[in-house]
Amino acid sequence: MTTTDAAGARKPRFRRRVGRTPVVLVLPAILALAFLVLPLAGLLIRAPWATLPQRLTDPQVLTALRLSLETSTLATILCLVLGVPLAWLLARVEFPGRRLVRALVTVPLVLPPVVGGLALLLVFGRRGLLGEWLDQAFGLTFAFTTKGVVLAEAFVAMPFLVIAVEGALRGADTRFEEAAATLGAGRWTTFRRVTLPLVAPGIAAGAVLCWARALGEFGATITFAGNFPGRTQTMPLAVYLTLEQDLDGAIVLSLILLVVSVVILAGLRDRWITAP
């Protein structure tokens, strides 16, 4: 099929032909979808809906939920304070070993969380490389405390923020920053007044993902901070402990985390899961 432009020239117009979907791809795709959805459906099917209101108001559930929300929020703030400058450094500054630094930043993504917790214990424990000095000099103790929960969550969640913000910085138009520099703005002023507004959506998305990862952290937390109700027992740890005694209670706690995950995905659907 052809079309005619303003000059009268005929241009071919191509249509994308959609062939028949091969069965050899459809069946594995359906199996993959079922594999991902059925376990979540199992939570909804087996949920004790009749006693759900009473279980949600249980003091242990509320304590674990409050602690999880507080520590994940504090961990996200810590990641923002430290991670945004790190992302800017990786995206805007050329320095020797930048690829190595970027690789080190992503290590917690693939590192088993229990190993991360052990590493934190060796560094920030009372006999750790820095922990002993911090305890003696400032009286700061991280291991097996609420502060340790925040530290463990920030360790595993910060790469999500750094990667998101670095990607936003690399995709931002640098001409605005260059224009600000030509008008006499310093680097700090340019960063604060130009760069941050440009990448604000990326920072927000990275912060939400960081918060979600911190909320669901288990391995590093239980290794570095322990599992003490009211002090270090977050929602994932409460699910693990409740599962040994009360299956319905563990399902209720899991439902809360599931709802949080769905809300986060719904909020980020335009940025992460919407396809053209």
UniProtKB/TrEMBL annotation:
Database matches in SUPFAM superfamilies: MetI-like
One Pfam match: BPD_transp_1
InterPro entries the UniProt entry points to: MetI-like, MetI-like_sf, ModB_ABC, NifC_ABC_porter, Sulph_transpt2
Principal subcellular localisation of the protein: membrane
Domain ABC transmembrane type-1: 65-268
PROSITE patterns, sorted: ABC_TM1
Protein topology in the membrane: Multi-pass membrane protein
Subcellular compartments: Cell membrane; Membrane
Bilayer-crossing regions: 21-45, 72-91, 103-125, 137-165, 194-214, 249-268
Lineage top rank: taxon: Bacteria
Keyword list, A-Z: Cell membrane, Membrane, Molybdenum, Sulfate transport, Transmembrane, Transmembrane helix, Transport
Assembly behavior: The complex is composed of two ATP-binding proteins (CysA), two transmembrane proteins (CysT and CysW) and a solute-binding protein (CysP).
UniProt similarity note: Belongs to the binding-protein-dependent transport system permease family. CysTW subfamily.
NCBIfam families registered for this protein in UniProt: Mo_ABC_porter, modB_ABC
Role summary: Part of the ABC transporter complex CysAWTP (TC 3.A.1.6.1) involved in sulfate/thiosulfate import. Probably responsible for the translocation of the substrate across the membrane.
Name of the protein: Molybdenum transport system permease
Organism: Asanoa siamensis
